[in-house]
Amino acid sequence: VHKKHHFSASCHGFLPLHCSSIHSFDVFFSLQCSNTIHRLKARTSWSLSMNTLTSADALAVCNQLKADDCITTSVILDWHGAVASPRSEPIFEALGVATSVQSLSISSAIFESTEVVRPLAHAIECNTTLDSISLLGTTFKPETFSVFLSALVGKGNVKHIKLSYSLHDEAAAMIFATCIGEAQTLETLELVGEFSRTTMIKLAPVFSTTTSISKVSFRDTGIDSDQMKPIADALARESCIQEVCLMSCRISTAAIKTLAPIFETNTAISRLDLRHNEISAVGICCLASALTTNTSLKYLNLDHNNSKCAGATALSKVLRNNSTLEHLVLSSNEIRSKGAYDLASALSTNTGLKTLVLSGNKPGATWIAALACALSVNQTLRKLILDSCKDITPDSLGPLINVLRTNHSLCILGLPCCITPESCSSLVETLLVNPTLRKISFERQLPLPLGFDLLEAKALREAPIEFSNFEQLRRYEE
Q1: How far apart, in whole angstroms, are the C-alpha atoms of residue 240 and residue 252?
Q2: How many CB atoms lie within 10 A of CB 98?
C-alpha cells in the first residue's frame, strides 16, 4: 500500500485496532463506535458525531487528546444540524490542553447559548498548537458569534480561517470584520457561501489594512459589480495580500470589468484564481488588457470560463508583452483553432510562461504543427497539458513528439489521445535522447505492444520518467 488511507469505523462492540505496523501512514478515523477505543499508533484525525456521542466515547476521546504522547493533528466536531449542548464541554476542555491538534473544524452546529460557546472559545485560546479553524454550515446568534470570534483575536497563532456561514446580518458582519482586522497572525481567510453587499463593504477595508493576511478566498459566493466594487477598491491599495481566489462566484462581465483595472497598478498580487465563473470573452479581454503591463501576477487560473477565441487572442498579447506570468490555466474555455493558433504563436517569443493548460478545448488537429513550431524555439515552458482536447487526433501528434528531441525545457506533457504505432516509435526515440521529460500522461489506454515499447524505453533511459493516468501500463510494468 502506497497511498494515504482513510478508515471509517461504525461498530457497537470492541474495536480491535493494532496499527503499530502502519505508523508511517496518514489515518483518518471516524468515531461512531460505542465501546472501548484503542489508541491509533499513527498520525490521526478524529471526526466526532457530537449529537450521538456517548459519555463513554467522549471520555475515551478526551483521555487520548490529553495524553502526553497524543499525535492527533486534526479534529472535526459535527453536530449534523443539531443545537450544541453543554454535553460538549469535556471535549472542548480536552482540546484546550491537547498538544498536537493543529486543525479544528466545527460542522453543522447551532450555537444558541453563550454558555456553550464560552468553553469552546476558551479552549481555542488555551490551545498552543491550533493554527487552522473552519466553521462549516454553523449557525450563530450575534452574541455567540462575538464570543467565538473574540477567542480568535485573542489567540496568537491562528493562521487559517475558513467560514462557511452566510453573513447577511449587519451586526454579525461588523463583528466579523472587526475581529479579522484585529487578528495579527492570520494568513489565509476563506469565505464560502453567500455574503451581502453590506458584508462586503464592512469586510473589504480589512484587505487594504491587514498586515498579515496573504490569501483571500471567496467560493460559491455570487459576486455582482456592486459587491465587487468594495473588494476591488481595497485590493487597489497596496497591501500584503498576494493571492486572491474567486472560485465559482458567478462573476458577471460587469464585475470583472470592476476588478480588472487594479492589476494595472497592483504590485503585490501574484496569484489569481477565477475558476468556474463563466466569465465571458469580453470580461477576459478586459482582464488581459490590464495584465499587459502587470509585473507581479505569476499564476492565472481561468478554468471553466467562456474565453473563446477572442479571450485567447487577448491573452496571447499578454504573453507577447508580459514575461512575469508563469502559469496560465485555460481548461474548458471553448477555445478553437484561431485562439489556439494565437497562443502558440505567442509561445514563440514568450520567455516567462512555465505552465500552459488547454484541457477540454477544441484547437483542431492541424494546430499541433503550429504548437510544435513554437516549441522548437521556446525554451521556458515546463508543463503542457492537452488532455480532453477531443479534436486532436492520434495521427496529428507526430510533430509534437518529434520536436521534443530538440526541446529540452518541457518536463511534463499531457497527451489528449492514444498514439499510433508510428507515433509510439517516435516517442521511444525521443525518450532516449530527451533528458528533461519527467512525466507523460495518457488520456486513453495504449495497446499492449506499445505499452511494452514505452517500458523498454523507460528502462534504457538514463533520466527517470513517469507515465501517469495509465493503470494498464503500471500493470505491464509489474
Answers
A1: 27
A2: 25
**Using one digit for the tens of pLDDT, what is the confidence trace for 179-231?**
888 888 899 999 998 887 778 888 888 888 888 999 999 999 888 888 899 99
pLDDT confidence of residue 8: 41
Terminal Cα distance for the chain, rounded:
14
- What gap in Å lies between CA 275 and CA 459, rounded to an integer? 39
β-bridge partners, 189: 161, 216
The cell numbers describing 339, all together, are 485562439
Q: What is the per-residue pLDDT for 286?
A: 97
Of 265, 270, 259, which Cα lies nearest the Cα of 237?
A: 265
Q: Tell the burial category of 418 from Cβ atoms under 10 Å away from its Cβ (0-12, 13-18, 19+).
A: middle
Cα–Cα distance between 332 and 402 in angstroms, integer? 27
CA gap 372, 399 in Å, rounded: 6
And the C-alpha cell for 264? 494595472
- Give the dihedral sign, CA 403/409/411/417: negative
Helical pair 89-97 and 55-66, crossing angle rounded to 10 deg: 10
> Would you call 8 exposed, middle or buried from its count of C-beta atoms within 10 A (0-12, 13-18, 19+)?
exposed
pLDDT(109) > 50: yes
Is 168 within 8 Å of 194 (Cβ atoms)?
Answer: yes
Whether 138 contacts 116, CB under 8 Å: no
Could you identify the residue written with the cell 511534463? Answer: 412
3-state secondary structure at position 57: helix
What DSSP string describes 250-301? Answer: ---HHHHHHHGGGGGT--S--EEE--S----HHHHHHHHHHHTT-SS--EEE
Per-residue cell: 281: 470573452
Q: What is the pTM of this model?
A: 0.86
List, as one string, the DSSP characters of 319-344: HHH-SS--EEE-TTS---HHHHHHHH
Calculate the CA 95 to chain-centre distance. 28
What residue type is 283 in one-letter code? G
